[in-house]
Amino acid sequence: MLSTRTSRSPSVAEVVPLHKRTGTALQLLSCSVSCECITVVSRHVRFLGNLHLHLWDCGGQVSQYSPQYMTVPVKDDFYRNYLENMRDHIFRSVELLIYVFDIESEEEGSDFAQYAEVLEALEQHSPDARVYVLVHKMDLVKEELRESVFAERQASILDLAGSRLCVSCFGTSIWDETLYRAWSDMVYSLVPNTALLESHLNDFCTVCQADEVVLFESTTFLVISHATCTPHTDAHRFEKISNIIKQFKLSCRKAQAQFEGMLLTNSTFTALLCTLSKNTTIMVVATSLPTQGTLILSNIRRLRTTINLK
Fold first, then answer.
1. Rounded to the nearest 5 degrees, what angle is found at the Cα of 109, between the Cα atoms of 106 and 114?
2. How would DSSP label each residue in 209-245?
3. How far, in Å, are 124, 165, 187, 202, 223 from residue 129 at the CA level?
4. What DSSP designation does 288 have?
């Protein structure tokens, strides 16, 4: 994930407006909030080399919801502060807003009241922003009920947004591939010139006679783009590959070795994974030309000069 958090009680809902501004590094504002104290941590990060983002992470707690929905006094006013006093500062020029619902929350009415206020602020100051809503901790719902529970929550989320904003909804958990998929979709929406990038990858996939070509961000191993010439039945293959590679990179680090790439080949397929640019890693899978890793590497060198990624 893009964010790191200090230890705190689980929040009922969190809102993360993501600003994209020229010449501004990604600023991560992680807010630890409890009834006793407020801690704000600011960090500067850069994604994909030259993609500069500005991010606010505004935590939510049960004690912070709008007074008209509470039966007891509000214990601190941090939530009111960023929705009222800091409203213009936080919600202006937002490119992407990430909103997290806790599926275990017992304050559903308050959760949606807060969500409605956030959408109102976003529509007022950044009407073209995209909204990604994560219904989190879905692993705590019984497996046979997950689909119906998520569908019900998603319907409420989309109904409240209406047609005012572009809203996408994901059921997520840290214990499976769903969170990775949600973050990959968010990152993909922020990458400039994706249509041109996909066009290059499709041409490259055809030239290599590959089944699939996937482009990852090198640090997080989130998918930036991909081209598929041969359909695959496993919808979670990218997430699984990402997890395998990240674990292998950790093993390399423990052995004080530098991970540069990987080549798997046998009589039926070739899978090559290597650096494409300073911030990206490419994976090529081919079944029509098994054991042709050298040929694929040669084509990757040509691709580097064609797309000129940072």
1. 110
2. T-SEEEEEETTT--EEEEEESS--S-TTHHHHHHHHH
3. 11, 7, 14, 29, 22
4. S
What DSSP letter does each residue of 99-112 carry, written as one string? EEEETT-S-HHHHH
Residues in the chain where the model's pLDDT stays below 70? 1-79, 289-291, 309-310
Report the pLDDT value the prediction gives residue 215, as an integer from 0 to 100: 93
- What is the rounded CA–CA span in Å between residue 15 and residue 300? 40
d(CA 292, CA 299): 11
- Three-point CA angle 166, 96, 21, nearest 5°: 135
| Assigned token pair, 89 | 């500062």
Q: Return the number of other C-beta atoms located less than 10 Å from residue 173's C-beta.
A: 18
Contact assessment for residue 309 and residue 277, using Cβ atoms and an 8 Å cutoff: yes
CB 73 within 8 Å of CB 62? no
From the list 61, 65, 12, 68, the residue with the least C-alpha distance to 39 is 61
- Helix/strand/coil for 189: helix
Beta-carbon contacts of residue 112 (< 8 Å; ≥ 6 apart) = 156, 160
* Alpha helices (H) along the chain: 78-80, 87-91, 108-125, 143-161, 178-190, 194-207, 237-254, 293-307
Coil, helix or strand at residue 269: coil
Q: What is the pLDDT of residues 89-121, one digit of tens each?
A: 778 888 888 888 989 888 888 888 888 888 998
